[in-house]
Amino acid sequence: MIGDIKEHPINMTINIKKCTLEDSRKLQEISIETFTETFGQQNSPENMNAYLEKAFNIKQLEKELSNMFSEFFFVYVHHEVAGYVKVNINDAQSEEMGEESLEIERIYIKSRFQKHGLGKYLLHKAMEKAMERNKKKIWLGVWEKNENAIAFYKKMGFVQAGAHSFYMGEEEQIDFIMTKTLI
Predict the structure, then answer these.
(1) Which residues are marked as active site?
(2) Residue 182 and residue 46: Cα distance in Å, rounded?
Protein backbone atom coordinates (compact mmCIF):
# COMPACT_ATOMS: atom_id res chain seq x y z
CA MET A 1 0.00 0.00 0.00
CA ILE A 2 1.46 3.33 -1.04
CA GLY A 3 -0.40 5.49 1.48
CA ASP A 4 -1.70 9.01 1.22
CA ILE A 5 -0.10 11.16 -1.47
CA LYS A 6 -0.56 14.91 -1.32
CA GLU A 7 0.91 17.82 -3.23
CA HIS A 8 2.45 20.33 -0.87
CA PRO A 9 2.07 24.05 -1.62
CA ILE A 10 5.76 24.38 -2.46
CA ASN A 11 5.59 21.48 -4.91
CA MET A 12 6.76 18.76 -2.55
CA THR A 13 5.14 15.42 -3.17
CA ILE A 14 4.35 14.02 0.27
CA ASN A 15 3.62 10.35 0.82
CA ILE A 16 2.77 8.65 4.12
CA LYS A 17 3.45 4.91 4.30
CA LYS A 18 3.00 2.39 7.11
CA CYS A 19 6.26 0.79 8.24
CA THR A 20 6.77 -2.97 8.23
CA LEU A 21 9.43 -5.24 9.72
CA GLU A 22 11.35 -4.88 6.45
CA ASP A 23 11.72 -1.18 7.27
CA SER A 24 13.54 -1.78 10.58
CA ARG A 25 16.97 -0.58 9.33
CA LYS A 26 15.48 2.50 7.69
CA LEU A 27 13.52 3.19 10.88
CA GLN A 28 16.69 2.82 12.95
CA GLU A 29 18.56 5.30 10.72
CA ILE A 30 15.91 8.00 10.81
CA SER A 31 15.24 7.47 14.52
CA ILE A 32 18.89 8.00 15.43
CA GLU A 33 19.29 10.92 13.01
CA THR A 34 16.20 12.84 14.10
CA PHE A 35 16.60 12.16 17.82
CA THR A 36 20.22 13.32 17.69
CA GLU A 37 19.30 16.44 15.70
CA THR A 38 16.55 17.26 18.19
CA PHE A 39 18.29 16.54 21.50
CA GLY A 40 22.02 16.12 20.86
CA GLN A 41 23.00 19.68 21.78
CA GLN A 42 21.17 19.65 25.12
CA ASN A 43 22.40 16.29 26.42
CA SER A 44 25.75 14.72 27.20
CA PRO A 45 27.21 12.34 24.59
CA GLU A 46 27.16 9.55 27.22
CA ASN A 47 23.45 9.97 27.95
CA MET A 48 22.62 10.31 24.25
CA ASN A 49 24.55 7.16 23.34
CA ALA A 50 22.99 5.19 26.20
CA TYR A 51 19.49 6.21 25.09
CA LEU A 52 20.11 5.63 21.37
CA GLU A 53 21.52 2.14 22.01
CA LYS A 54 18.60 1.19 24.23
CA ALA A 55 15.70 2.72 22.27
CA PHE A 56 16.82 2.26 18.68
CA ASN A 57 18.66 -1.06 18.51
CA ILE A 58 17.29 -3.34 15.80
CA LYS A 59 15.85 -5.95 18.19
CA GLN A 60 13.95 -3.25 20.09
CA LEU A 61 12.59 -1.68 16.90
CA GLU A 62 11.56 -5.08 15.50
CA LYS A 63 9.75 -5.80 18.77
CA GLU A 64 7.90 -2.48 18.50
CA LEU A 65 7.12 -3.01 14.80
CA SER A 66 5.68 -6.45 15.65
CA ASN A 67 3.41 -5.15 18.42
CA MET A 68 -0.19 -5.29 17.21
CA PHE A 69 -1.02 -2.21 19.30
CA SER A 70 1.71 0.00 17.78
CA GLU A 71 2.09 1.44 14.28
CA PHE A 72 4.84 3.45 12.62
CA PHE A 73 4.38 5.64 9.55
CA PHE A 74 7.10 7.23 7.42
CA VAL A 75 6.52 10.53 5.68
CA TYR A 76 8.34 10.76 2.36
CA VAL A 77 9.20 13.88 0.39
CA HIS A 78 10.06 13.06 -3.21
CA HIS A 79 10.74 9.40 -2.24
CA GLU A 80 13.09 10.34 0.64
CA VAL A 81 12.13 9.51 4.22
CA ALA A 82 11.73 12.90 5.89
CA GLY A 83 10.24 11.83 9.22
CA TYR A 84 8.04 9.38 11.04
CA VAL A 85 5.37 8.94 13.69
CA LYS A 86 4.74 6.07 16.11
CA VAL A 87 1.28 5.60 17.63
CA ASN A 88 0.21 3.24 20.41
CA ILE A 89 -3.10 2.01 21.74
CA ASN A 90 -4.16 -0.26 24.60
CA ASP A 91 -1.23 -1.87 26.50
CA ALA A 92 1.39 -0.43 24.13
CA GLN A 93 0.86 3.06 25.56
CA SER A 94 3.81 4.21 27.66
CA GLU A 95 1.43 5.51 30.36
CA GLU A 96 -1.93 4.18 31.52
CA MET A 97 -4.29 6.56 29.75
CA GLY A 98 -7.22 4.22 29.21
CA GLU A 99 -8.85 2.33 26.39
CA GLU A 100 -10.27 5.51 24.83
CA SER A 101 -6.82 7.00 24.18
CA LEU A 102 -4.19 6.79 21.45
CA GLU A 103 -0.62 7.80 22.23
CA ILE A 104 1.70 9.56 19.82
CA GLU A 105 4.92 8.17 21.27
CA ARG A 106 7.29 9.58 18.65
CA ILE A 107 6.92 12.20 15.95
CA TYR A 108 10.12 13.40 14.32
CA ILE A 109 11.00 15.30 11.15
CA LYS A 110 14.56 15.64 9.79
CA SER A 111 15.75 19.19 10.44
CA ARG A 112 16.05 20.12 6.76
CA PHE A 113 12.37 19.19 6.22
CA GLN A 114 11.02 21.08 9.23
CA LYS A 115 8.77 24.12 8.84
CA HIS A 116 7.07 22.66 5.75
CA GLY A 117 3.93 21.23 7.38
CA LEU A 118 5.11 17.62 7.59
CA GLY A 119 4.47 17.45 11.33
CA LYS A 120 0.84 18.37 10.63
CA TYR A 121 0.56 15.56 8.07
CA LEU A 122 1.87 13.05 10.61
CA LEU A 123 -0.34 14.45 13.35
CA HIS A 124 -3.37 14.17 11.09
CA LYS A 125 -2.38 10.57 10.31
CA ALA A 126 -2.33 9.84 14.05
CA MET A 127 -5.75 11.47 14.48
CA GLU A 128 -7.08 9.44 11.55
CA LYS A 129 -5.84 6.23 13.20
CA ALA A 130 -7.43 7.28 16.51
CA MET A 131 -10.79 7.91 14.84
CA GLU A 132 -10.62 4.59 12.96
CA ARG A 133 -10.27 2.90 16.35
CA ASN A 134 -13.01 5.00 17.98
CA LYS A 135 -10.59 6.68 20.38
CA LYS A 136 -11.81 9.84 22.06
CA LYS A 137 -8.44 11.32 23.00
CA ILE A 138 -4.87 11.49 21.69
CA TRP A 139 -1.91 12.28 23.90
CA LEU A 140 1.85 12.59 23.88
CA GLY A 141 4.81 13.38 26.08
CA VAL A 142 7.06 16.29 25.12
CA TRP A 143 10.26 17.39 26.87
CA GLU A 144 9.60 20.48 28.96
CA LYS A 145 12.59 22.21 27.30
CA ASN A 146 11.42 21.51 23.72
CA GLU A 147 9.71 24.87 23.31
CA ASN A 148 9.21 24.60 19.54
CA ALA A 149 7.39 21.28 19.87
CA ILE A 150 5.26 22.52 22.77
CA ALA A 151 4.24 25.59 20.75
CA PHE A 152 3.39 23.36 17.76
CA TYR A 153 1.23 21.03 19.84
CA LYS A 154 -0.59 23.95 21.47
CA LYS A 155 -1.25 25.39 18.02
CA MET A 156 -2.68 22.00 17.02
CA GLY A 157 -5.12 22.02 19.96
CA PHE A 158 -3.23 20.07 22.62
CA VAL A 159 -3.29 21.14 26.26
CA GLN A 160 -0.95 20.20 29.07
CA ALA A 161 -2.60 17.62 31.32
CA GLY A 162 0.29 16.50 33.51
CA ALA A 163 3.92 15.44 33.45
CA HIS A 164 6.04 12.31 33.79
CA SER A 165 9.68 11.32 34.07
CA PHE A 166 11.73 10.43 31.03
CA TYR A 167 15.24 9.03 31.36
CA MET A 168 17.99 10.12 29.01
CA GLY A 169 20.64 7.64 30.02
CA GLU A 170 21.07 8.22 33.75
CA GLU A 171 19.51 11.69 33.74
CA GLU A 172 15.90 12.14 34.76
CA GLN A 173 14.06 14.69 32.64
CA ILE A 174 10.46 15.87 32.70
CA ASP A 175 8.05 15.42 29.82
CA PHE A 176 4.80 17.35 29.74
CA ILE A 177 1.81 15.16 28.96
CA MET A 178 -0.32 16.94 26.40
CA THR A 179 -3.77 15.76 25.31
CA LYS A 180 -6.31 16.58 22.66
CA THR A 181 -9.94 15.50 22.72
CA LEU A 182 -11.25 14.30 19.36
CA ILE A 183 -14.68 15.33 18.16
Answers:
(1) 153
(2) 39
